[in-house]
């Protein structure tokens, strides 16, 4: 196994959006494969025809795409492989590892009721398990796997440790329904084997499934994959994260403006750790990620930690990449695309926007001065900084700036000198300047805005603010 190429898979059911727990499972599989030069495959488990929808498949693919979790090869549809799953069930029948069971639902229920009354195990024991094929009727039947009746099944799990289940607690699992269609448990095993999956990394709600699925591997003589069952994610209240208490899909986090790199970093840290490292890049995550770093207890989702990491990722982002992410965010929330002028302005301003913005909406709010239309319309808070006295100060200041060389040092010197001449501190000038240049009370530094806007635009905004009459 150590020399073989690592192959992992993410296998969601398309019954809704990409849940944040599913996104983390996909991320763990992606990191494990990418860090070892392996393959990360994607399979859509769409056997439940009543609940699977093309829209949900699209939503899952969009979520993975936003998170940057690229997969190798084509997307596999489990439903389309049903004939292959049935073929394996017939192979098991032929080798005596499975049998046809003709018991009706009524007979099974009667067996369970009698077992309950006598205080016995209600696990159904089919009378057809060892029946002579010659005595079998020509009637509807299911195909069941012959599970060993004594001994135990041992799962050597990379996260949960050694898990032992007594075989007398496992029933003879149905492989084919009476209409001949394969069940999900069979499909998963056949798909994993055919796709060459070496490592099954999934939620620990599948741990009991592993014991039953191992029976199929054993009966077919197939090598077992390495199992790693990861704990579920809990909400801040310690209960399982669910739609019930506001758990959202990955696409909702994109619409809230969290950058994908920050989301990847946060989800990687949710239940996995590498020493005390909190903030790390994709390259570091791929290099460090291993199954031995996954904890056994559920991780708690913490929005504050997510925001903190996202802020750090925005700060170190490449400007062009960040611009691309902003444009994808605006498209996701249905906002109109940026104009060429706005894109250009944003790129010029990026150096003074990236610090201290934890989300893309926060960054865009700081960028208002370069995105807004002129003439500037100050909001309510900014308007309070543009009273008659302030407008008079701006009118007096403008001539001092006209001959300035428009470097940061020169602008600082001019404004500080002017404040001194007015018998005040620069801080007192900042409010009116922010209001005039951005129409907002909270902005990047006045000097940064003036440098980004340039001499002509800055002077034009100051002159307009100074000239406008109140009210």
Automatic annotation (TrEMBL):
Catalytic reaction equation(s): tRNA(Glu) + L-glutamate + ATP = L-glutamyl-tRNA(Glu) + AMP + diphosphate
Binding locations of ATP: 243
InterPro entries: aa-tRNA-synth_I_cd-bd (IPR045462), aa-tRNA-synth_I_codon-bd_sub2 (IPR020751), aa-tRNA-synth_I_CS (IPR001412), aa_tRNA-synth_I_cd-bd_sf (IPR008925), Glu-tRNA-ligase_bac/mito (IPR004527), Glu/Gln-tRNA-synth (IPR000924), Glu/Gln-tRNA-synth_Ib_cat-dom (IPR020058), GluQ/Sye (IPR049940)
Domain of life, per lineage: Bacteria
EC number per UniProt: 6.1.1.17
Renumbered ranges of motif 'HIGH' region: 12-22
Compartments reported by the entry: Cytoplasm
A Gene Ontology biological process term: glutamyl-tRNA aminoacylation
Aminoacyl-tRNA synthetase class I anticodon-binding domain segment(s): 326-465
Molecular function GO terms recorded: ATP binding; glutamate-tRNA ligase activity; tRNA binding; zinc ion binding
Main subcellular location: cytoplasm
Motif 'KMSKS' region: chain residues: 240-244
Key words, A-Z: Aminoacyl-tRNA synthetase, ATP-binding, Cytoplasm, Ligase, Nucleotide-binding, Protein biosynthesis
Major enzyme class: ligase
One annotated Gene Ontology cellular component of this protein: cytosol
Domain Glutamyl/glutaminyl-tRNA synthetase class Ib catalytic per the UniProt entry, residue ranges: 5-307
Family recorded in the similarity comment: Belongs to the class-I aminoacyl-tRNA synthetase family. Glutamate--tRNA ligase type 1 subfamily.
Assembly and oligomerization: Monomer.
Role description: Catalyzes the attachment of glutamate to tRNA(Glu) in a two-step reaction: glutamate is first activated by ATP to form Glu-AMP and then transferred to the acceptor end of tRNA(Glu).
HAMAP family registered for this protein in UniProt: Glu_tRNA_synth_type1
Protein name: Glutamate--tRNA ligase
Taxonomic source organism: Mameliella alba
């Amino acid at each position: 196994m150590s020399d073989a190429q690592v192959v992992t898979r993410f296998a969601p059911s398309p019954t809704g959006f990409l849940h944040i727990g599913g996104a983390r499972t996909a991320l763990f599989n992606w990191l494990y494969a990418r860090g070892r030069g392996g393959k990360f495959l994607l399979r859509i488990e769409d056997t439940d025809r009543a609940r699977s929808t093309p829209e949900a498949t699209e939503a899952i693919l969009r979520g993975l795409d936003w998170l940057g979790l690229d997969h190798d090869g084509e997307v596999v549809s489990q439903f389309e492989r049903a004939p292959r799953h049935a073929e394996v069930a017939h192979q098991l029948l032929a080798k005596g590892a499975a049998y046809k069971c003709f018991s009706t639902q009524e007979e099974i229920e009667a067996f369970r009721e009698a077992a309950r009354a006598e205080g016995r195990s209600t696990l159904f024991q089919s009378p057809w398990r060892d029946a002579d094929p010659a005595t079998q009727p020509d009637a509807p039947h299911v195909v069941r796997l012959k599970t060993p009746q004594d001994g135990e099944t041992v799962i050597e799990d990379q996260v949960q440790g050694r898990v032992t289940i007594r075989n007398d607690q496992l029933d003879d699992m149905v492989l084919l329904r009476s209409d001949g269609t394969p069940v999900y448990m069979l499909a998963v095993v056949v798909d994993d084997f055919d796709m060459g999956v070496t490592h099954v990394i999934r939620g620990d709600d599948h741990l009991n499934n592993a014991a039953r699925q191992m029976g199929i591997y054993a009966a077919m003589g197939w090598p077992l994959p390495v199992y790693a069952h990861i704990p579920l994610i809990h909400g801040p209240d310690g209960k399982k994260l669910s739609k019930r208490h506001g758990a959202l899909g990955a696409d909702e986090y994109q619409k809230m403006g969290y950058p994908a790199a920050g989301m990847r970093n946060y989800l990687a840290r949710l239940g996995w750790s590498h020493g005390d490292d909190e903030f790390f890049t994709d390259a570091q995550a791929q290099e460090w990620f291993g199954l031995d770093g996954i904890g056994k207890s559920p991780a708690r989702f913490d929005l504050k930690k997510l925001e903190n990491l996202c802020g750090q990722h925005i700060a170190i982002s490449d400007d062009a990449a960040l611009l691309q992410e902003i444009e994808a965010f605006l498209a996701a929330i249905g906002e109109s695309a940026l104009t060429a002028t706005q894109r250009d302005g944003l790129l010029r301003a990026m150096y003074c926007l990236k610090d201290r913005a934890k989300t893309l909406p926060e960054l865009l709010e700081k960028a208002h001065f370069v995105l807004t239309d002129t003439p500037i319309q100050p909001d309510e808070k900014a308007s309070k900084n543009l009273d008659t006295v302030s407008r008079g100060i701006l009118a007096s200041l403008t001539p001092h700036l006209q001959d300035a060389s428009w470097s940061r040092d020169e602008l600082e010197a001019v404004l500080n000198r002017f404040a001194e001449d007015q018998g005040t501190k620069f801080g007192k000038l900042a409010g009116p300047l922010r209001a005039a240049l951005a129409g907002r009370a909270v902005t990047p530094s006045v000097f940064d805005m003036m440098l980004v806007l340039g001499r002509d635009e800055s002077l034009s905004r100051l002159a307009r603010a100074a000239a406008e009459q109140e009210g």
